[in-house]
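Subject: for your reference before the review

Hello V.,

The reviewers asked for a structural picture of the protein, and I figured it would be easier to keep everything in one thread rather than splitting it across files. Below is the amino acid sequence we used in the manuscript, unchanged from the supplementary table.
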Amino acid sequence: MSRLTRGYTIASLGIIFWSLTGVLISFILTRYNMPALLMAFWRSLFVCVALFPVLFISRRSLISINASQSGFYILYGLDLALFNSIWALSLRENGAAVATVLGYSSAGFTAIIAFWLFNEKLGIPKITAVVLSLGGCVMVSNAYNPEIWRLNSLGVTTGLLSGLLFASYTLIGKEATRKNLNPWTSMFFSFAFGTLFILIFNLFPILPGSAGSLKAILPLHLPVDGWLFLIFLSFGPTLLGFGLYNISMQYLPASIANLLATTEPVLTAIEAYIFLGERMTVIEIVGSLVIFSAVVIVQLEKE
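And here is what came back from the structure prediction:
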């Protein structure tokens, strides 16, 4: 198996898990009326709780870093904290459909910044693929309906910021592979520092949707099933999604890894059909084919 094929396979598996994220976050925020940043805090904390014993038992060296690496992981954690927080706010303000389209502006951001920072090739195939993938996301998420584009300024800002922050997360992850850092170590410390930053966001009114106080950090009103949904969100889509995506960047250029992530709304629609009986419309099916065609087209560009 070639490096590219291995990268495509690992990234695809991660995105399959990832595709449940938006639905679960929207469900938790609306059903339990949970502040967006509070949900982001517990999500990140549970990832650390799940990762620590596994890494400690398998290889203790994976949970240790030297002083020279701490600045990098603090930056990584800050970006992750901002992305998870802003993404949750975007879902709350825009709804899943519009938040998805605005969030996947990250494909364009990543291609441009990776060209500038890492000299990744930015030719016609990749530019075409980015445009097609964004158009396909619009179709799959029904964002062509003008009714759901009644955005406020906070909605527009959080949506585009989530795309830029995911692009920077991808690029920082790519830099981690260039430094030969273990992807699971990178994930553990980025989430550990990210959890601390999100805790700060919750204690101080830096961003809307925070808990507001130390006492409110522990949502005692949340029923048992709410905690179970939070744990599943953290251990499943988040842990496996982010972990496999990070590993894939050992084999793929950052721009291609991010472009593959745009298949997430397609997978979400397919999962909704399988598990919830929701049928895809003709436009959604066409949009899915457009996104998959973008993934095929990008392979025409030789890195």
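For the response letter, the relevant points are probably these. The chain has twelve helices and no strands. The first helix runs from residue 3 to 18.

Happy to draft the paragraph if you're swamped.

O.
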